[in-house]
Amino acid sequence: MELASFSTPESPSSPSPPCYITSGRNHHASVSFVRCLHQAKAIVHDLESLRRSIVLEDPSVTPQLIESIQTYLDITYSKFVRLCKTLHIILRRMHSQYYINHERFESFKLDITTEWKRVSHIHTTMANLLQRALHRVSSTSSLTRNHHNNHDNNNG
């Protein structure tokens, strides 16, 4: 992604004003925005890696582990949503103050929306998997406790 290339209007009669890099502040704002956008993409990548690597069928999986993963997932998702909302606000301000041109605005907006959809899908998928695993693990441990209790009652 080219950070410092801003387009200028085709002709003097273009409806939108030119988007020049007129100061270090404008360039810094764009670079900072791109860094935050990459941070959002890194969060999505981390959650995708977690989703691919998680093994909930293992007998050693406990309800506490599942709840810890769910807590991490929920906190990470909430932070991601806040980050995306903030990125949308900053993007609109940058566009309204002519720090970026309309094409770049639309491209960044699409990037944010795409990552938001991806993370929402991951969150929903993982929450469903975790819920099923918690139900399965809780049922299994309940059956095991009942079996042990019945066995102890029969022997005592």
TrEMBL record:
Q: Tell me the segments the record calls region Disordered.
A: 1-21
Name by which UniProt lists this protein: Uncharacterized protein
Name the domain of life this protein comes from.
Eukaryota
Compositional bias of kind Low complexity = 1-11
Please name the source species. Circinella minor
